[in-house]
Amino acid sequence: MGEGAIELRTGDWAALGAHAGALRHQVFVLEQGIAAEHECDGRDALAVHCVAYRDGRPVGTGRLLPDGRIGRMAVVRDARGLGIGRRILAALAAVAAARGDARIELSAQRQVEPFYRAQGFERAGEPYEEVGIAHVKMRRTLLAIGLAAGMPLISALVARPAFAGALDAVSSADAAGALRAALDRGAAQAVAQLGRAGGFLDNPKVRIPLPEGLRQAERLLRTMGYGGELDELVTAMNRAAERAVPEAKQLLVAAVKSMSVSDAKAILTGGGDSVTRFFQSRTQASLTERFLPVVSRQVSRLGLTQRYNALAGQAAKLRLVDQRDASVERYVTTRALDGLYLMIGEEERAIRRNPVQAGSKLIERVFGAMR
User: Fold this and answer.
1) Which is nearest to 337 in space by CA: 286, 264, 303?
2) I need a surface site. Which of 69, 108, 125, 277 has the fewest CB within 10 A?
């Protein structure tokens, strides 16, 4: 069942608390191991809640507090990847905007920071630890909802009648051509940025962290004297990703060339992750096949497998390593692709905001009409 079959409901705790509470318990307490007393903070009665239903089953939730803070964002494992979190976030932002909030804030777990960046949030402080998990405070100005947040261009401007007239002057072929040019430029720049020394390691947006199990055990492992090994592991994983990214350029270019007019329309009218979803659908399987051998060679050359297995073995004794993180090659490949798609999306959104800077008359004419 696709994203379009999702139903969203907003309301108070009395109306939605039973489903929201059960979802949060499943994700935070049972899946992430957060203590129940930390998950329930006594502020639910003050908040506006949103629950997403898929085929009548509650699958995701989030809440908005009176001070503009969004939190308790949770989507059950089998419903992830359908855009549910993005839709819940958009619904809560709309509630905040309607009541006059100037901005919204949230505390994001570090592994999902790229998701919130794609929705227009920016980091508002240094990372910190909460309930044993690394977090970072993020903020979004509600006045910036629209282009700066990577929201759908047409939906964001639907209230302006002049917008339809401007688009009438732009043919579908021109729109598709401009988007191809923008994505081609964005892909080339993303590969160039990430495929160099420090491309991943020095960029907090895409830096590959320790796998979740090791992150949960990090403090204890450091007290046991494994701090140096942990730091070396992070460096080696990011170096492996940096060496793999140049392999992506050819496949990304081919994906852009194959884009149809209908593909372009889906991206232009899609959500903040529409570019990511396009490239994932066209290149993820083939890029995974191409990345894995490169990552495997780097893993072997850097002695990464031995380092990872030794640390994972220690974490396994604490029952903190998930089977998903058992293969360091697969983990690094997945995170490298996540970072690549994120940076392509950011480059494309930058072109939408300032088409003149892209240096193409076609891009300037099409995206200029959409501003």
Assistant:
1) 286
2) 125
Handedness of CA 216, 218, 219, 225 (dihedral sign): positive
* Predicted confidence band of residue 164 (pLDDT cuts 50, 70, 90): very low
pLDDT at 148 over 70: no
Beta carbons of 51 and 9 less than 8 angstroms apart = yes
pLDDT exceeds cutoff 90 at 50: yes
> Residue 330: which residues within 8 A CB-CB, separation 6 or more?
292
Residue with tokens 């507090």: 65
pLDDT at 123: 87
Of 134, 131, 135, 136, residue with least CA distance to 35 = 131
DSSP string, 100-115: T-SEEEEEEEGGGHHH
Strands 48-54 and 6-11: antiparallel
Extract the tokens encoding 86: 């993005």
Which of 213, 115, 178 has the alpha carbon at shortest distance from 362?
178
Residue that is written with structure tokens 């090659």 in the block: 329
What phi and psi values does residue 104 have, to the nearest 5 degrees?
A: -125, 150
Distance between CA atoms of 238 and 234, rounded to whole angstroms?
6
Give the list of residues 6+ apart from residue 222 with CB closer than 8 angstroms, or none.
230
Check residue 126 and give its pLDDT.
Answer: 82
| Other beta carbons within 10 Å of 82 | 20
**Checking DSSP bridges between strand 69-75 and strand 103-109, what pairing results, if any?**
parallel
DSSP label at 30?
I
3-state secondary structure of 225: coil
Distance, CA of 107 to CA of 182 (rounded, Å): 32
pLDDT at 214: 63
Give the model's pLDDT for residue 311: 57
C-alpha to C-alpha distance for 81 and 218, rounded to whole angstroms? 28
Measure the CA–CA gap between 50 and 92, rounded to whole angstroms: 7
| pLDDT tens readout for residues 98-134 | 777 788 998 888 888 888 888 888 888 788 787 678 8
Tell me the C-alpha to C-alpha distance, in Å, between residue 339 and each of 224, 276, 289, 335: 31, 10, 17, 6
Q: How far apart are CA 331 and CA 318, in angstroms?
A: 20
Note the pTM of the prediction, 2 decimals: 0.49
Kindly report the CA angle at 337 between 331 and 343, in degrees rounded to 5?
135
Band (196; pLDDT cuts 50, 70, 90): very high
